[in-house]
Structure formats: structure tokens, C-alpha cells
Amino acid sequence: MKVLAAMSGGVDSAVAAARAVDAGHDVVGVHLALSRMPGTLRSGARGCCTIEDSLDARRAAERLGIPFYVWDFSERFRDDVIDDFIAEYAAGRTPNPCMRCNERIKFAAVLEKALALGFDAVATGHYAHIVTDDSGHRELHRASDEAKDQSYVLGVLTSEQLAHAMFPLGRTPNKAAVRAEASARGLTVAQKPDSHDICFIPDGDTRGWLADRIAPEAGTIVDRDGAQVGSHDGATSFTVGQRRGLNLGVPAPDGRPRFVLEVRPRSNEVVVGPREALAVRELAGARFTWAGLDPVASGIAVADSTAPDAVAEFACEVQVRAHADPVPARARVVPSTGAAPGAAADADDAGSPAGLPSAGTLELVVTVQEPLHGVAPGQTAVIYVGTRVLGQCTIDRTVSADAHSDSPSDAVPATAS
Amino acid sequence: MTIYLDHAATSPMPRAVRERYVEALEVVGNPSSIHSSGQSARALLDEARARIAATLGVDPIEVTFTGGGTEAVNLAVKGMLWSRRAAGHGSRILAPAAEHHATLDAVQWLVDHEGATVDWLPVDASGRLRLDALEAALASGPAALLTMLWANNEVGTLQPVAEAAALAAAAGVPVHVDAIAAYGQVPLAPVPVGVSAVSISAHKVGGPVGVGALVLRRGTEVEPLLHGGAQQRGRSGTMDAAGAAAFAHATELAHDALDDRAAHKRALRDRLAEGIRDRVPEARLSTDLTDSLPGTLHLRVPGAEGDSLLFLLDQAGFAVSTGSACQAGVPEPSHVLLAMGVSPSEARGSLRISLGPDTTAAEIDALLDALPHATRQALAAGLAARQPRLGR
């Protein structure tokens, strides 16, 4: 096969490219230029997408004896990842830009260009693997437990995208093995530190970066009953689950710490409450995809005859962050009721074009067995069955597990982008 | 076997030049040393200087060797500006908007750090300096210098150097000409009246990389960029005798057969242009075939990325260029094409094909066989900025 190896300049993608070469494929290395104004040098272990990273990728390609090119996707990346990141925060949501990049850049813009230019597949250094079933259908699976499994950030890929994806590191037992292999292959990036941060915020200061792009506006911090308990300099700099930096003037009646429960960008309010109010028993999103065959075709669930394409409840696990543990859950696909109970809390948002799904739109609804903490609208919920990634949704709304949620104002509505 | 059609980037060193270079490298001695070894090296250097001067019709004392074309341009632009400013002529620079990056960046540096001002002069749709604009700029007030290309390095358009230099001379403004793309392709001698400095480079004519020269006419002063020994007029640093010898040999080869080589390249270039018109109707030619370097052809494919075209042709065994500089491989739409009035999106679909003295008709025909398919494939891949269908 003719394989495009996406080479970031890191050790994983270099070894992935090397393995694709070893497997006998006709491999071309491509470094994606995602920034118009790349820095010259990495600063410490942070960030990526510098000229130095591009040179590292080139050096690895030279070592492997494969052709190497730099493709500019900076404009696409700005529109689909950076602007999306800003818009999501501005809407009070918590996006995952790496996921967006896989969904819309690596396995969309890059893959489409690659296919048009005669490639058969795009290979990356992600830790996840693809299994092909007896009838030729592709499934996405977790990497081994010890490896830094990255199937979560690939959960957005559809069958069409998976059909041309290649993850040569998928079955590697652990990262140390990849570094050892890089070293044995004479790749200079063998000991290069991992990048942990958002690549377009190289200094790691997401708050500061956002503050430069979303004009902060002072507003109020309220409790769940709407009583003002403090003020803030800009609602969009808060994330659901955050505790620090609230500087509340009024102590909670019980004296216990309070957490951000909700960010309401329209009214510029931040809602706070006790930790238990963060616990979520249900989450749902209308923007969902299946990573391969859908659950009914996979024999995991049965169709729900009450609506076309609806899926009856089935057992699964759900993971809501890249490094979170998956938790047992039940999922179903049902027509949305149009608004969550109590969605009127920030009803002006729901009326926007980016509001909650209108009645009749299908929604992936996930009910967790034990209450789940740290779930914010905008995050992606990836559904697993065993090691298999079944699909995902972007979380539009959550339902609190707290007793207080009997009050109708407690579901967290959010805008869908 | 790769068919090399990127001679405007660098032209391969002919065997005879390579042999001369190696021979010269065997000569021990620093040309500035007083002993006999030093004198041997000095003899090589002086001989080379005289031979290069002869190709331009200037005196040897007017040739200062540099570490390449970029240094020559920087020395001319910065050195002349500093020198003219010291003499009370201010620090206003006149430069066409379609200059090479060596000039653009040197001028911009002077603006940013030395308080210089610049008038970027417009070019026409072929990338040629508009003399009416130059005239108006000269009439509008005193200027420290005019710097301009002899031939555009991307699209190949020859510039009205003699006319511009005459206008500048009448206004008492010295002129630097960046002749790096033109030297060895078209005759430059006699250097037109009014031209005070000319930059040239060895590797564009089959000499070594890292060797260039700035012609500084008598009476032209430049403030040096480099200090430390004053070995040459306007430049310090140990002189590269072997590099100079190889440069001289390469440029003599180019100049001995200048007309024949130009005719050969022009015939093939025109054959290529005609073939493209016939077989690649999606392409638009940017090069003015009547008044340009003989071996350069620039084209655009609207709706395609130049890097897609380059990739596909590279895979098919052809070394060509998108023609414009890139930072970390991020292609900027060429400022030359933008100055010519081409839209930024169309400028992204650029391809520059530049022929050498040994290019054959068979090679051009092979390229013509590969181009239609590559063009259609690159068009199918589209512009990188377009919204993909997948992942929505």
C-alpha cells in the first residue's frame, strides 16, 4: 500500500513510520504545518509544531530513507480546531482540540488530500489498534493496558475514516518499548519528551491564552438557587468542576468548598455548588458517531422500533476524558425531547442556533451506574464495549445525580456547536 | 533517474568545474599571507577575480567576493544605505514589490531597526517594474538608493534595468541590481550607466554554494557588514581562493556559450509552454515568454496547491519548484504573484520549471506526458483550506 506517515517530529510517529516501512508499504513522511507562525525552537518539554519539530520529523524520515514533505494545513487547523476551541469556551463548554484535530484534520483534510494524491492510508503514532472482523468490517480497539492507550481521542472516527487509518503502534506493550525501538533504529528522537499540552498553546497557559481571545466581562457567581455569592472577571475562564480561583465573598451555609457547576455565557453567570452537585447520572449528545458498524449491526444492541435509527438500551462503558477511567453505563439512542428537564435555566442559550437539539433529533443518552464526576458540556463521551470503541457523542447536557436535582433548574443545558 | 528542472534553485556543478575546484583546494595558503604559499593562493584568487570581472565588463578591483548571493545583496542594500545616510542623503529606499526575499528582508530590517523608509514600487502583470511609478517616486523627494532585480527569480521576467538606472542617475540616486537569477543566463555586460552595484552568485551558474560576489563600481562606497581584517573592499574575512577559482571556471563555461545555451533553453522552454497550452488547459502561464530568462517557466493551476503538484511530479521523477520561499515548509502565497495581481488562492497553485544547459527535448516531453495527470490529481486534492467532506 501507499502510506502517508504523518510525522509530528515525535518518537511515536517516527516509529510508526518505520514499522510501516518494515511492513513493506511504500511510505512517504508528511509533517503537517499547523501554525502560520511556528516558533523556532521547542521550549523545554512543552508544545509542538515548531520548526525544530519539523526538522526532527525530517531527520527521522531521512534516517528511514523515505521521501518527506511538509503540508500546510494551518488555515484548516485554525478554522476547525483553534476557532472551534475558542467558540466552545465562549459558549461555556470544554472542548478537546486533539480530538477535533483527529476528526477534522488528520483523518479528514489530510486523509482526503492523501487519497486524492494516490495514497491508500494515513498512518499515525497513536496507541490504538484496528481489528478487522470476518466480514471485513473494521473495529477500533484500545491499545494494551500498560501502553498509553489513545483510543479515546480517536473515538470520533467513522467507518469511512477508519477504512484508511493505520496505527502501527497499536499492539506495542508500552511506551518504553517504542523508545527502545527508536533508539535501536538510530532515530534521534528516541528520548524526545512527550508533548502534553495543547500544541497551539505552547506555554501551557490556556486561561491566559483564552483571555487574549475572548474579551472577559465581569459578572456574577450564583448558587443553585440563583442567589449571588460572588463576582468574576469573565465567565468563560471557568470550567465545570473547577474549585480554585472563585474567591467567593459569601461562605457556603455548610462551610464546605464550592465548585463550578455550570457556566452560562449568555447571562455571564457562573453557578457554584457543593461537590456532590457535580455528580452526574446521565449525559447526552445529539452529535454522535459510530466508529465502525453501529451497535445494532454489531449485534450489541437491538433496534428500538419506536423511531427510525433509534437503538434500545445496551450495556457499555463510558469514558469522558482522555485519561479518565471508563465506568459501567447503559446507552441508548432515542429522539430528543427537545429540551432537558429544567433547561430553562439559561433558556436564551437554548434558543440560539447552537442550542439544544430540537424535538425528534436523535440523541445518544448514557446513564452511568455510579455517579460520574467531572463531566462538562463540550467534552466527548466515548462508548466502549470491552476494548472496542463503539462510538461517541459530544456532551450537550447532563443530569445531576444530586438530590437537589429534583428541583427543575438543575439539568445543565449547553449549546451544541 | 530524476529529471532535474530546478536550475533556478541551484544548477549542478559540471565535472570540469568540480575538477578545477578540487585542484584549487589542493593549493595551501591563505591569500592574505605574505609567504609564497599565500601568494599561490592569492594568484588563484586574483585570476578568478579578473575572469569574473571580465564577464561583466568591469575592473577586477570592482569585484568583492562574498559568502554567497544573500550576503552580496545584504552588503549592497545595508552598506549603501548606511554609507549614503552618512553622506547626508537620508535613508529612503526605493524597491519594486516583487524583489527576492534577500532584498525584501534586508530592506524590512533597515526599516525596523535603522529608521529607514521604503517605497515599494508596483510591478505590472508580468512582474516588471513600472517605470512611471519609479519616475514618480524619484520626483517625489530624495532617495538614498534604488535596489532592483535584473530578472525575477520566480517568473523570470527581465527588468528594465538600463531605463531605471538612467532615471535614477538623473536624480542622483545610486542603484543596486540583484542579478543573481540573470547572471550567466543573459548577457549583463556592459553594466548600464547608473548601476553602482551588482550581486551575483556562483551556484546558480554551476559553481559552488557559499560563493558570491558584489560588484561595486568605482566611486561606490559601502559600509561593511563584517569587520575583521578588511581583506577586500567592503568586506572582511579570509578569502576563499578555491571557491573563487571554481566560480570563475563555472561562469566562464556559462559565458563562453551564453548565446547558444540561451537559444537551446529558450527553444525547449517555449516547447514546454506550447505543450502546456495544448495539454494542460487548466494551467495559466505567468511567464512573459518574449522578455524573460530563457530557461524559466512559471505556471499556476487555480484550485490546486503547488505543493501537491510538486509532490506528484517528484514522485514521478521530476524535480521542480513552487518558486516561492517557505518558512518551515509553510508555503506563503508568493509576494511576486500577489504583486502581479494574482489572487492569493490562485498563487497557491504555483509551479516553476527552470531548465539547464543540458536539459533535453526528451526530458521536456516526459514532463509534458506527466503534467496533465498530475494537474488533474492535484486539482482533485484541491486547496488545503477547503472544507473536507470527512469528519463532518
Notes on the structure:
The complex is a heterodimer of chains A (417) and B (392). Chain A folds into 3 domains: 190 residues, HUPs (Rossmann fold, 3-Layer(aba) Sandwich); 62 residues, SH3 type barrels (Roll); 128 residues, Elongation Factor Tu (Ef-tu), domain 3, CATH 2.40.30.10. In chain A, 22% of the residues lie in helices and 26% in strands. Chain A is built from 9 helices and 19 strands. In chain A, the strands form 3 sheets. In chain A, strands 5, 6, 12, 13, 14, 15, 16, 17, 18 and 19 form a 10-stranded antiparallel sheet that branches. Chain A has a 5-stranded parallel sheet with strand order 3-2-1-4-7, sandwiched between helices. A 4-stranded mixed sheet of chain A has the order 9-8-11-10, with no helix packed on it. In chain A, helix 1 links the parallel strand 1 and strand 2. In chain A, helix 1 packs parallel to helix 2, helix 1 packs across helix 7 and helix 3 packs antiparallel against helix 4. Chain A is globular, with a radius of gyration of 22 Å. Chain B is 41% helix and 14% strand. Chain B has 392 residues and is an alpha/beta fold. The model of chain B has no long low-confidence stretch (mean pLDDT 96). Chain B has 2 domains: 242 residues, Aspartate Aminotransferase, domain 2 (3-Layer(aba) Sandwich), CATH 3.40.640.10; 124 residues, Aspartate Aminotransferase, domain 1 (Alpha-Beta Complex), CATH 3.90.1150. In chain B, the strands form 4 sheets. A 7-stranded mixed sheet of chain B has the order 2-8-7-6-5-3-4, sandwiched between helices. A 3-stranded antiparallel sheet of chain B has the order 9-10-14. In chain B, strands 1-11 form a two-stranded parallel ribbon. In chain B, helix 5 runs parallel beside helix 6 and helix 8 packs across helix 12. At the A-B interface, strand 2, strand 3, helix 3 and helix 4 of A face helix 9, strand 12, strand 13 and helix 12 of B. Chain A: GO terms for molecular function: ATP binding; tRNA binding; tRNA-uridine 2-sulfurtransferase activity. Chain A: One of its GO terms (cellular component) is cytoplasm. Chain A: It is an enzyme of class 2 (transferase).
